[in-house]
Amino acid sequence: MVMGILSICLILILAGILIFFIYRNANKFLDISHVHIMVMSLSTVISLTMGVTLAFLIHYHFFVALLFGLVLGYIIGRPINLFAIVDGMSSGLMGGMMGVMAPMMTHVNPILLVIFMDLIYIILMAIILKLIFLTRGREEDKRELQMTTRKT
Asked: What residues form the membrane-spanning segments (predicted)?
């Protein structure tokens, strides 16, 4: 029980941080043609991890995980565009459903499965956070290049 609550806290804190950075840098993502892949992977991984944890805590309750995935996909995709919203919501729905079904299909200790999903979640969130910062740095480099070309 404590492991599940700690896992949910970890998921929500990291998701909140990433959503904050997405909203803060949303105008920089508009230039990127494949930003919906970031939205898709975020909503899938977050809802998948939350689904596994909720399956462990409230015994395979689909509705909460599906609703969480839908809302999360909308929140993540909203600052980008309508295509990202649809992609995020469908990926969140799929991830939540797969997350609840994963403990049913694997015959592994549920605590080990939650720990494994949390580790995957942390690694992928670090990669996506790095992508956000690389995108931000590229935008600042473009601005500096434009400033120097205007001076000459």
From this structure: 5-23, 35-52, 58-76, 111-133
Calpha distance 106→148 (Å, rounded): 58
Place of tokens 């309750």: 61
Q: How high is the pLDDT of residue 27? A: 78
- Sorting pLDDT into bands at 50, 70 and 90, what band is 122? very high
**How many whole angstroms separate alpha carbon 116 and alpha carbon 72?**
22
Domain limits, the chain:
2-14+35-133
Residues near 11 by beta carbon (within 8 Å), at least 6 away in sequence: 46, 49, 50, 53, 118, 121
* Nearest alpha carbon to residue 66 among 92, 101, 102, 104: 92
